[in-house]
Every structure is written in structure tokens, then in C-alpha cells.
Amino acid sequence: MSPTVSRALTDQPATDAVARWHAWRAERLRALTAPTGNLALVETRWLPAGERPDTERAGAGRPDTVTVTTLRRTDLVTGEPEHGLRLWDADSPAIRRFDRVDTFPYDPAWVLHATYTPVPGARRVSFEHIRDNGGTRDLVVPGDITLTVDGRDYTLSAFDDDGTLLLVFGDPTNGDTTYGAGRFLFVQRTADEDRVLLDFNRAFVPPCGFSDQYNCPMPPRQNRFHLPVEAGEKRPVFRGGVPAQH
Known about the structure:
Layout: H1 14-32, E1 41-46, H2 55-59, E2 66-74, E3 81-89, H3 93-97, E4 98-103, E5 111-118, E6 124-128, E7 136-140, E8 143-149, E9 152-161, E10 164-169, E11 183-186, E12 188-189, E13 195-199, E14 233-238
């Protein structure tokens, strides 16, 4: 279903837009299957309080295809920093069995302009995460994104992902034709500081759709659309079905 929107992008030739979309899809597949891509993550290990990660020790005796990196988060109960290790395998079962990511056809009607209103200060919004058993983590949301879709007004919350706005959204396709926990979309800035671009043709399956070792944020109530967003990625497809570790 295509939306009736407040304003659609009309300042670029359709053929150029489709070509760029195909290039995005090709780069996306390269990134997914990279040695430290989403499909390569085979273990996320959180360390006991006070213990620091040792990548050399964690990687000792492992195959050359394995890469070890570190990560950090805040403990939901104590508020103290937690340190962890991630193990990536360029020859993981998920990479070997990965076939493709099904995608909706490109639809220019799902390229939408929206108003962006910065919010002073470090405002935080609670996002439930898929592996936190109902717990929430506060993420910095630096501004409000407002638009009208199919006659309904929305104020969306996109959080700051290393300097880029990342929208986590849900819609009625989730669990049917698209990934059940919702999808991600990077918000594009424009020359106008008060406007942003939402190209839902580039909506993508979150990392937890490729490995159960990720802990992805889920769409808050304000980021759930009432109509099907039939644009962007649907679901990953694996030969022989989804691997036990995916």
C-alpha cells in the first residue's frame, strides 16, 4: 500500500533514484556478509563486574576466520558500565546458509519529507530491547520528526546513532511479510535544517534479524504506523531454513 503523504520527493529523476537504490542494496548485501557483518556475529559475551575484556586471550586457539572485538553498555539495575566481547566468524553457519534478503519493489511514494524540530538538551526516550525481557534503555533523541501519512499525524522519535538519526519503526507488515520486531531506517538530513528525508525503500532488517547475539531496540508506540509500509527489506532468506544460531 502506498501512502497519501504531506509531501513526496519529486526533485530527482526516477531512473536515478532506482539506480541509487540498487546500489544501496548491493552495498547492504556486501556489508551483511563481511567478516564482521551482521551474519558473522556468533557470540556476545558480557563479563563479570569489574573485569576488562582481553581480545587476545578470547581469540587464542580459534580459527583464522574469527575476529574478536569489545563492546560496552550500562547495567539496567546498577547503572554501572558493563564490558563485553563479541566473536565474529567469517565462516559462520549463517553466512554459509545465507541466500538473500527479500525486498519490496522500489516505490517513490514511500520517499517522504518530514519536519525536524531539534529539542535542546540531551533528551532521552525509553526503548524496549529485544533481549531485555521487557526492560528499557534510555536513548538520546535530539529532535522530533513530524509528518502526515495517510491522513494521520505522527511525531516520530529517532535516536542518535553515532551522529546519525536512526528510526526504529513498526507497521502492520511486521511478523507477516517483514521482520517481526520492526525495521530500521537512517534519517537523511537535507539542506534545510528543519526538514529531513525518510526513504522507506531503504528500511532494513535490524541486526537481530541476522544473529540472535544482538540486542536491538524495538519500536516505541509513537513509531508505529497504522498502515502497511510496503517498502524496503522484508526478511532474510536462508538455504535450508534459519540456522539455530542466526
